[in-house]
Amino acid sequence: MKKPHIVILGAGYGGIMTTVKLQKSLKVEDASITLVNNHDYHYQTTWLHENAAGTIHDEKTRIPIRDLIMNKKVSFIPDTVVSIHPEQKKIKLKENDCLYYDILVIGLGIEPAIPNIPGAEEYSLTVHDINSARYLREHLEFNFASYQNEKEKDPGRLNIVLAGSGYPVIELAGELANRIPELCKAYDVEKSLVRIINLEESSHVFSQFDSQLAEYAMNSLTSRGIEFITGVTPKECREDRIVYEKDHKTKHLLTRTIICTDSVQASSVLEDVSAMNSNGKVDVQKDMRTMEHDNIFVLGSAAQVFSEGRQCSYPPTVRATVQQSAVVAHNIKAILNNEEIIHFHPSFLGTATSLGHNDGISEGTNGRKLFGWKAAFMKIMNENRYLLELGGPSLLMKKGKFNFF
Amino acid sequence: MKKPHIVILGAGYGGIMTTVKLQKSLKVEDASITLVNNHDYHYQTTWLHENAAGTIHDEKTRIPIRDLIMNKKVSFIPDTVVSIHPEQKKIKLKENDCLYYDILVIGLGIEPAIPNIPGAEEYSLTVHDINSARYLREHLEFNFASYQNEKEKDPGRLNIVLAGSGYPVIELAGELANRIPELCKAYDVEKSLVRIINLEESSHVFSQFDSQLAEYAMNSLTSRGIEFITGVTPKECREDRIVYEKDHKTKHLLTRTIICTDSVQASSVLEDVSAMNSNGKVDVQKDMRTMEHDNIFVLGSAAQVFSEGRQCSYPPTVRATVQQSAVVAHNIKAILNNEEIIHFHPSFLGTATSLGHNDGISEGTNGRKLFGWKAAFMKIMNENRYLLELGGPSLLMKKGKFNFF
């Protein structure tokens, strides 16, 4: 009898944790496992704002996949998924031959959606993977170096615009506030010439937070020089500026750095498997399988758990994805052995948002609020816990964060 | 009686060494000394190719002027010289009030001359100071990061064109050959996609070297992937390419990095003092004073010593400039004390050209040739000797090069 073939697409939090759990729980003779990912490394998405600001090098964020998988149990194919064909249980890859699966796990994550503003595709930046984070880091350094080296100085080179006020933008603002003084020193730029400006469409920033936490975040960021402009309608991105409307007036803000990290949607290849819902995600059942296919699991930020006629609402945290990977790994083993499958019951420790090294805000599910270094410490502990779970103490020692203060 | 006022313009090799020597040999009551420089740091011009390639950080190359001067003897003014008026013994500065001198020392060095090719001003890069070296370093990293992050990849981002084959170009090529593998690793770029191409107008490269040394340099650089194209007439620099003619055919070479470091001329402000000769330099007498003014000294790369009806010919090395600073400092003291002035008699140790860390070629005045690590070692020893002379053992320990192998 042929061994069942489990294919895992994507080595983000969901995909890599499912792989690691399966290679522990399954024997070589139980199944063959193939992992497909477009890079030969896994990375921590929640650290990308630090890579982008330049406060943590991307080498620290990346973990080679070969360090995480057991070669005798898992085959790794570095490639990009072109399309999925559920009726033939087939996956088309860009460089390699087609793959055929018996059980499929999709952890392809989300893609940035370009804001619907003229010029945004050409002139706005996102932070959604190692390449784009690394690009932003170099873009900032390049503009500081250019400013110092050009005869006719363009003040826009020193203006950084952050659009929106979602978690990634806040965290990036916090890191940039810490990074800018270093950049000023390295490039002999007067700190007062540098502006970090948050443009927000609504009349309030941080509306997603409890008011006490929002106030703390606002104070922390403004005290470090971040400016907030609310009630803004972006009109156009150009090479050297952003054009926006406020109070029915058109404003031009000189800048070469417009960062939009708010809009995201599920990886487009998921549409081959299941229709996207209005949130740009795929509905899955409580056992993490899609509505349509009982041999296809979807997990992570592209999955929305559907239960008892309504969507489960929970913050899309790493913790939730890791919990889902445990459900997926358990259920795959259960399917192979005809055992009982289990359901995903999110148990949350709350959310923590960094405001730069050593500062942050967090809120537990019990409503407990934390500010400053306590929240930052909690976030770092969560990240270290993840590394421990993924690769044991040796990975934690290599990639963990230990410079708490 | 008013103390005589000595003004030193420029804190390059010549200016800073004259200042340091004068503050040792003169007492506070002998004269007041003012040093003017456009940055608050001195730097080693001979290290700029390393800063530009990114193999040595510019922080290592820079030395804060406050660490070199004695405040009670020397006043430092960070400013740019606008013009010199010898008849009024006056110097106009950009930001500060005019300065009046009794004795003037000019060590303003040389400026890059933009090649006379359409687009060169906009699209070619030079390496002539910390700002431009730092810019090139970031320009390279920015292009590697951009290449990885763009959908439609522009192979020109990975092509580096070096125009001409003077010392600075060869040294930069050697450093780049060492740096590129690091950049490829940091940005996940296939090394075979990167090209470093030297475009040379004449039919031979390295014609300024002894044939044995030239052959060694050629072998060393080509073995590390540098390509040489000779008999080239550059026609146009564009944002994404260089256009040149070879064998009566027009060629387009995709690149975003065109580096021209060959053409230099004396700082334009020197024309206020003395007419430039056909080499773009100022003729000085053997006591380092200009032909026209017996209270104005010029030294360093902008000065050409004129003696017995002909120009002294010697390579414009750091060693020669340091020797000139000793002559200038001695002669200023001699003028103040009505003692005998001395002449500049260059005594050379030869020239050493780096081909990247741990490799080089050198030729002594006795005709002795050195290759490889011996030449590189000799160059590093010269550089360390200079630091010792400038700031004593503590400066040598802080800024010296000690990683020989």
Strand order in the sheet with the most strands of chain A: 5-2-1-9-21
CATH topology annotation of the largest domain in chain A: FAD/NAD(P)-binding domain
**Quaternary:** homodimer
Greatest interface: A-B, 19 and 19 residues
Low-confidence stretches of chain A: none
Tally of strands of chain A: 26
Q: What would you report as the Rg of chain A, rounded to the nearest angstrom?
A: 22 Å
Helix content range of the residues of chain A, please?
Answer: 25-40%
What's the overall geometry of chain A? Answer: globular
Q: How many angstroms separate the termini of chain A?
A: 57 Å
- Report the CATH architecture of the largest domain in chain A: 3-Layer(bba) Sandwich
Q: What structural class do helix, strand and pairing data of chain A support?
A: alpha/beta
Description:
Chain A has 405 residues and is of the alpha/beta class. Chain A has 3 domains: 5-112 and 264-342, FAD/NAD(P)-binding domain (3-Layer(bba) Sandwich); 120-260, 3-Layer(bba) Sandwich (FAD/NAD(P)-binding domain); 349-400, no CATH class. Chain A contains 9 helices and 26 strands. Chain A has helices at residues 13-25, 48-53, 58-61, 120-123, 130-149, 167-187, 211-223, 318-337, 372-399, and strands at 5-9, 32-37, 41-43, 62-64, 74-78, 81-85, 90-93, 99-100, 103-106, 110-112, 124-125, 159-163, 195-199, 226-229, 233-238, 241-246, 249-254, 257-260, 264-266, 282-284, 296-298, 303-307, 310-311, 351-354, 360-363, 369-371. The first copy, chain A, has a 5-stranded parallel β-sheet with strand order 5-2-1-9-21, covered by helices on one side. A 5-stranded parallel β-sheet of chain A has the order 11-18-12-13-14. In chain A, a hairpin with a 5-residue loop joins strand 24 (351-354) and strand 25. The longest helix of chain A has 28 residues, at 372-399. The first copy, chain A, is globular. The model of chain A has no long low-confidence stretch (mean pLDDT 91).
